[in-house]
Amino acid sequence: MAHPFTPVSYAMCHADDIANCAETAAMLQQQLHVVDQFCSNTGIEINLSKTEVIVFRNSGPLRAYESWHVRGVRLNITSVYKYVGLLFTPQLSWNLAHDKLAS
Asked: Is 61 domain-assigned?
């Protein structure tokens, strides 16, 4: 078990999708590198046009170091991310997901 103050990272997998979660920008970039290496080693292609990043926080602009790359391609930062049918927002509000499910 990680120490309460040790940054941790997670990966959620469903079918052919992977959603990585990390507590720091550097950890996410490291995860992206690991996924890229795995894909390169196994012949799997990453669809970079569908690869996005969402930053969870209450408000404020992204910091200069908050950008992520795979194979030299800068990834798009999105304000709404859909994973397994659920909609996620930077503030982790369930309002958008609730409204979508209700309709």
From this structure: yes
Beta strand pairing status for 52-53 and 76-77? parallel
Answer whether 0.90 is exceeded by the pTM: no
Question: How many structural domains is the chain composed of?
Answer: 1
Residue 49's domain comprises 9-76
**Rounded Cα distance, 87 and 102, in Å:** 13
In 1-103, alpha helices (H): 25-42, 95-102
Three-class DSSP category at 48: helix
Q: For residue range 14-65, what is the model confidence (pLDDT) as tens digits?
A: 667 888 889 999 999 999 999 999 999 999 999 999 999 999 988 888 999 9
The reply to whether 32 falls in a domain is yes
